[in-house]
Every structure is written in structure tokens, then in C-alpha cells.
Protein 1
Amino acid sequence: MPELPEVETVARSLRPFLVGRVIAEVDVLWPRSLVDLDPETFASQVTGQTVVGVERRGKWIVLRFGGGGALLIHLRMSGQLILDSY
């Protein structure tokens, strides 16, 4: 499991790529990772959101959206986050 410095490094490296970008598409590969939402509802709520900030809160990466919402990401055991930018 990644420790705080690794999570901070991932958040800092994501910041220049994500801030100001609009989420065009969402694929939920592991539906059990969603709390109280089905994958279709989650995808519809996140798609079209503009990322206005990327930060670390504990071992969570927080993507802040222009509409006031946020997405919490945990790196789980692998410590990997795959960003597909096209």
C-alpha cells in the first residue's frame, strides 16, 4: 500500500495534466469500488465535469470539480493510477 509521500507524488504529477481539463468519458472497471452508486449514474455525474484542483487528503487523491463536487481516489494496494489522455 502506498504511503503518504507516494500519494503526494502522484497528486503532484497529475495536477498539470488534469487541472482545466474536462472529463470526456468514464469507464468503471471495478463497480464494487463505488459507494452507493451504480456505474451508469456515477459516469453520468462525472462526465462533463471540469477539474479545477488536484490535492491529497491523507491517502486519498481529491479531484475538485468546477461544479463544487469532488472525486476521491484511493490507490489501493498497487499504488497505480492509469491516466488515459487522448
Protein 2
Amino acid sequence: MSQAPLNALRAFEAVARTGSFRAAAEALFVTQPAISHQVRHLEDWVGAPLFNRQGRLPVLTPRGEALARDLSLAFDSIA
């Protein structure tokens, strides 16, 4: 298996943390479509959806919740 795409992980973590694709884009100083693209790339890499996209706000799937928790710990450790 190839390494996880770092930009996609950062985009996913920002969406999970902020609760929206728009807020994640603002936090990372990129466009909302760029965030969406990166999250879809990560979902392709993982092989499963990480968010339920029903309604206006993304809701983490159980797999997304686990990944968000792990990434939060990892990014905090790096910081």
C-alpha cells in the first residue's frame, strides 16, 4: 500500500475539526473545491467514505471518526 496523501489528510482533518468544507478551506487558505477534491482522494485511498454528505454539513462516518481521532492525536504530537 502506498503512503497516505499528506495534503488529503490535512484537508480531511480540517473538515472534521471545523465541521464544514468551507471553514476547512478558509483555515487552510485554499478553495472549497480543493478541500472536496482532497477529501475524495483520501476516501479513494482508504476505500471507504469518511463523511456522510446528507444535508449541508458533513457528518463523519464511524471510519471517519476513528481517522479524525487518530489524526488529531498525531498532529498534536507533531506540534
Protein 3
Amino acid sequence: MKTFLFSFCLSLSIILNAQQRFTLRLEPTSLSAVPAVHSGTYGSYNHKWFFIGGRTNGLHGFQPPFAFPVSGINDSIFIVDASANQSWSASTYTLPDSIREAITSSNMEFYLNDSMLYMVGGYGWKDALQNFVTFPTLTAINMNGLMSAVINQQPIASYFRQIIDTNVLAVCGAHLNKLDSTYYLVFGHRFDGTYNRNDTLGFFVQHYTYEVRKFQINDDGTNLSIYNYRAVLDSNNFRRRDYNLIPFIDPFRGNGL
């Protein structure tokens, strides 16, 4: 049985200032319905959790061909009802290869906008090239339709759409977030080839974006595109991947990331 551990049982007392004080208590809960996956897309929609992509093996090794074995790809979509400790799954092999390979990659960027989940980039296996790549894709997933289809064991392909933009979307290890109507693809890198901690042997090519990429998404439920693209480049400070990105409110400058 797999265990999902929220936290150690503890009490935290947080003092914001002399006038504001509250106490937060966290307790452990075991859920056998939660899949053992990491480095993928996850979230909550309509009182259920979803897990897409990522890896089913643990910490990867550092030398090829053991770093990202094909056997460790999470090739299922999982829906979890935590309150009932129940889960459902659907195979991604019913999807076109271009969509399946992108959404089963690792360290992709994602953002849930109402009922539409947007997934960008990710590092994974490209069968046509017989190699690992960073996918240059934006995949839109209708979560309302997908979750119902997975639970009821119905076809899922109609709930996926995808576009390609090699210049903007080929990023992994970054974060995708939204302020107002603008999406922010923050930092990350493009990594093509077999993962290896020694890059002197020609196993891979790696390029950091050094950028905060900003764009809007045009999506009418059928047609999908990005527009108003621009980027902020800083090669000294934006060499970042696999980090935390959180929103904040500045009393003088408003919302930010």
C-alpha cells in the first residue's frame, strides 16, 4: 500500500506582527489511492486530484542509460477522490504520439485556468528521434471532460489539443503562472539528449533560457494559439531551474511572482 504523508504531526505558531497571530496544526493522513509519481503535473479540480506525467521510479541515476529509463515513465492519467480514498486511471496510449509523449514527460510547466489545464514543455522520450528531448509544445486539456471520461472509462482523446512553438515553448524545469490575462513562463532550460552529470562526452545539449517569457493564450475551445509574446532576458540572474515560484502582494506595486 502506498502512503501519502501530508506532514509530520506538529503545531506551528506563526506571528505576523504584534496584532496578528494564528496557529496551524498539520496531521498525517494515509491514502492508498494516491499514485507513486513525481516530477509531473498535479492539481485539484472539482473536489478531486489529478496526476499526469512524471516518473514512477525514484531518484534517477546520473549515468546513461540508467538516468531516465523508459520503464519509469508514468503512462497513466490518475484521478483521485481523497475523501473516499478512491482512484481511477486511463492509459495515455490511446492518445496520438505527439500528445502522449509530451504529457508523459518530466518537469513540464503547467497552469490550471478554470477548467482548462495548460501544459508546456517537459523533458522526455521522443520515439521518432530515438532520443530524449525538451518538448516544444503547449497542450490544452479540458479537465471537466477528461475527469468524467476517466472515471466512467470512456475515450479521452477529444479532451486534448496541442500546438508547437520551438522558440517559446521548449522549456523544462521552469514554472508557468498567470497574472491578469498574461502567462509567465519563468526561467528553466532546454535539455536535449541523454541525462548525464558529465557533459564532456557529448550525451546532451543544454541551454538555459535566462528569460521570463510572457504571452497570452487564445483559446476558444477549438482553436489554440499564443500571442503578445515578449521576453525579459537577464543572463546574470535568470540562470535558474527546479525552484519555487509563488505569488505575492506588494502594498505599493500590487501583485507579483
